[in-house]
Amino acid sequence: MIVTDTHCHLYWNSFDEDRSEVLARARAAGVQRMVVVGTEVETSRSAAELAESDPEIWCSAGIHPHDAEGSDPVARERIRELASRERCVAVGETGLDWFKEFSPREAQLDSFAWHLDLAADLDKPVIVHCRDAHEATADLVSSHRLRRGVMHCYAYGPDELAPYLEAGYHVSFSGVVTYPRNEANREAARQVPLDRILVETDSPFLAPQGHRGKRNEPALVVPILERVAELRGMTPSELAEVTSANAARLFGLPGS
Question: Is the pTM for the entire model greater than 0.85?
Answer without folding.
Answer: yes
